[in-house]
Amino acid sequence: MHTLLQGAVGGLLIGGTYALIALGLNIVFGTMRVINFAQGTLLMVGMFLTYWLWVLTGLHPYLSPLISIPVLFGFGYLIQQVLVAPLFARERAREPMSVLLLTLGLALVLENLALLFFAADFKTIQTDLAMRTFKMGGIIVSVPRLIGLVAAGVTGAALYLFFMRTDLGRAIRATGQDREVARLMGIDDFRVYSVAFGLSAGLMGIAAAILVPFFYIHPAVGTSFILKAFVIVVLGGMGSMPGAALGGLIVGVIEGVVGLYVQAAVAQIVLFGLFVVILFVRPAGLLGVERR
To answer: Which of 193, 201, 181, 241 is nearest to 74 (CA)?
Structure first.
């Protein structure tokens, strides 16, 4: 029982970070109705940015979001303005397939550029908190992962207030619900898309800062996280922010508990099996809403 509880706690702690990554994916989907395959690669960019800020300036990873969030927001905003917006304007479709293919191609380009400039070597950051733990009721708690869970919770709460209490947040929600009606109400839908894409990318700056103290940095690191993010988004409900949070915690706990008894590869099989079951049983996800 103690071992089971230890695995569940460990999974819960990393689940907050999973939820944060899935939340970024959900913002783009909920607003634009397209899946951003480059989300994991943007996380990789954020992790390398955090790493080089630490190497070149000595900036602590937990302070790096002060720089990485604006940089990644601007990068995401630029991607939407230069690459994605012309496709929406040209195809005049609510969910153009070409955008999905574009983000997939962008992910491949960014990953190979990282390989070209930084090689395939694994990089790590050693901080004073990297290996620190404490015991709570006999359960070992990792300090970096606990910080990550708290940071993810605070970020999620801030985003909720942004979407519910600000005019721009309401505009993003309105555009996601019905682009044509939002346009009739005077909302610039392409500007909203750019902000949503930038916001989604900026979140990867926070996720990167959470991950680098205890996770390796590599050009392909985003691939494993984006696959889990897809499972989380489907599990929680596509376009649902509470669903992304709940799904991330569930996936983390499942991964932590199953990983105690079987190999890591088998744990991933269980996750993707869950993905398939949810698609069949409840396609809208646990907290998602069926769209007609």
So the answer is: 201
